[in-house]
Design brief:
There is one protein chain. Helix content is 16%, strand content 44%. By secondary structure, the protein is α/β, with parallel strands linked by helices. The protein has one domain: 2,3-Dihydroxybiphenyl 1,2-Dioxygenase, domain 1. The strands form two sheets. Strands 1-4-3-2 form a four-stranded mixed β-sheet, covered by helices on one side. Strands 5-8-7-6 form a four-stranded mixed β-sheet, with no helix packed on it. A hairpin with a 4-residue loop joins strand 2 and strand 3.
């Protein structure tokens, strides 16, 4: 397995709940995990993320919901539909409903079909599929 150059590590309030969300609801794969401290390295279609039970390591301030204020994690997927289906089956609320967005890049527009959800701790996840350029 090749490690990405940037891999976010998220402190979580309930490791089991977060692990179930990322693996069972979204579809991430457990690459490896540790019991002490509770930790998992996860991957999904080329994206990588780590989750760890909040334990005070590298604490910069009080963790209170929603965690990660001011950041969203953009995650490119082949298709957003399977994730949306799983979220609907589990009655998981969508933070920003699916829409097409076109972002200016130089002299063209780059298209994303995307939606946003909050994970169990409120980290904002933006899943998108590429719509190409125009």
């Amino acid at each position: 397995m090749k490690f990405n150059k940037l891999i976010p590590e998220l402190s979580v309030s309930n490791f089991e709940k977060s692990l179930e969300f990322y693996t069972k609801t979204i579809g991430f794969k457990i690459e490896y995990q540790r019991e002490e401290p509770r930790f998992a390295f996860l991957s999904f279609q080329g994206s990588q993320i780590m989750i760890e039970q909040s334990n005070g390591h590298w604490k910069t301030g009080e963790l209170k919901y929603p965690f990660g204020r001011g950041i969203n994690f953009q995650i490119e997927v082949r298709s957003i539909e399977p994730i949306l289906k799983s979220l609907k089956e589990k009655n998981y609320s969508i933070f920003v409903k699916t829409k097409e967005n076109w972002y200016k890049k130089d002299n063209e527009l780059v298209g994303n079909k995307e939606f946003l959800i909050k994970d169990p701790d409120g980290y904002l996840l933006r899943f998108f599929e590429d719509l190409g350029t125009k």
